[in-house]
Design goal:
With 339 residues, this protein is α+β, with helices and mostly antiparallel strands. It has 3 domains: 8-106, Uridine Diphospho-n-acetylenolpyruvylglucosamine Reductase, domain 2 (2-Layer Sandwich), CATH 3.30.43; 108-222, 2-Layer Sandwich (Uridine Diphospho-n-acetylenolpyruvylglucosamine Reductase, domain 3), CATH 3.30.465; 229-334, Enolase-like, domain 1 (2-Layer Sandwich), CATH 3.30.390. Helices cover 36% and strands 23% of the residues. It is built from 14 helices and 15 strands. The chain has a 5-stranded antiparallel β-sheet with strand order 5-6-11-7-8. The chain has a 4-stranded mixed β-sheet with strand order 1-2-4-3, with helices on one face. Helix 1 (8-18) packs across helix 2 and helix 7 runs antiparallel to helix 10. The radius of gyration is 21 Å and the shape is globular.
């Protein structure tokens, strides 16, 4: 398909009317031209019907160093990493910023690499790119399985893994996968890079260990032995809705059906993903069958659950227990067990 290259005047007109609502057309029409000529753009509108968010300055850095310097120097700045969560919050004015730093043009934050026993994923990798990646399918199949539950295709076309982790919604699928894999989050700022184990990254409801001037640069996912089993289940009222509860399981099964390694994380139940250490300990080092998996999944009942208008705490714990058993059963079958 031939790429359309509109005049700069057209791009500026579209930017004024639509950038604040984050219509992707501006970037799609001629992204390079847009970033070269509108590295900093004031999105303020002259009347209340032009834009939904409060006024802000828009910045489009092209390098990681430039993005870090902007975050360090700009007051009340927020990162745009895909916009699937942030944009609605801006439009409802649940979040009000003075500066928006768009990481979409920072190529340093993209890419997938396998080495040293881990799969490294750039923070700005689109969810759909990860869903269709052969490296992810081979080395991190649980991530691909979970991505099929993330929103809809349109959501995954724009959403990024870094944006999902930074938003830290307790019902989101990707933080649960990172919890199960014991991922490491690499965080960048003007001070350099620092590595944060995922167990320390999510600190509460919509809260992470990121400081105000930091951004996620990459995620390291430890690679399990090829042939390990994986399972992912969630329950949502409609396809694409956030889950009321879900579970992500990993099993490495050796000879005589003995589990060498196990990981089980549940999400949507508490304020952040929860690893069920008791279930993992009950499975590791023993031969398992269907009854053992059911017994291990019962550890989900120990979680202190959330209650809200969508579901009560006891219901969420019940779902977590049922879904954990299903995820473990899938992982066992994929690891070669005949349940």
């Amino acid at each position: 398909m031939r790429e359309i290259t509109p005049p700069l005047s057209v791009i500026a007109f579209l930017a004024k009317l639509k950038l604040a609502c984050f219509d992707a057309a501006v970037h799609r029409l001629n992204r390079g031209c847009f970033h070269r000529n509108f590295d900093t753009l004031r999105c303020c509108g002259q009347s209340r019907d032009i834009m939904k968010p409060a006024p802000f300055d828009y910045h489009a850095p092209r390098q990681l160093k430039e993005a870090a310097e902007l975050l360090a120097s700009l007051p009340n700045a927020k990162i745009l990493a895909g916009g699937q969560s942030l944009v609605p919050m801006l439009n409802f004015r649940y979040v009000i910023v003075d500066h928006l730093v768009d990481l979409g043009g920072v190529d340093d934050l993209r890419g997938i690499a396998v080495g040293d026993g881990r799969l490294r994923i750039g923070a700005m990798m689109r969810q759909r790119e990860l869903e269709t990646s052969s490296e992810v399918a081979r080395h991190c199949p649980l991530l691909r399985e979970a991505l099929r539950h993330v929103g809809h295709r349109q959501t995954r076309n724009r959403g990024t893994i870094g944006g999902s982790l930074a938003h830290a919604d307790p019902a989101a699928e990707l933080p649960a996968v990172c919890a199960a894999y014991d991922a490491v989050v690499h965080v960048a700022s003007v001070r350099g890079l620092r590595a944060v184990p995922f167990g320390e990254f999510s600190t509460g409801y919509l809260t992470t260990a990121l400081l105000a001037d930091e951004m996620i640069a990459a995620i390291d996912v430890p690679v399990w032995r090829l042939g390990h089993g994986y399972g992912f289940h969630e329950f949502a009222r409609r396809q694409g809705d956030f889950a009321l509860a879900g579970a992500a399981a990993l099993l490495d099964v050796g000879a005589a059906h003995v589990v060498r390694r196990a990981a089980l994380a549940v999400f949507g139940v508490a304020e952040r993903p929860v690893r069920l250490a008791a279930a993992e300990a009950a499975l590791t080092g023993r031969a398992v069958d269907g009854a053992a998996l059911e017994a291990a999944a019962a550890a989900a009942w120990s979680i202190a659950p959330m209650s809200d208008s969508h579901a009560g705490g006891d219901y969420r714990r019940h779902l977590a227990q049922v879904l954990s058993a299903r995820a473990l059963a899938d992982a066992a079958r994929r690891a070669g067990l005949d349940l």
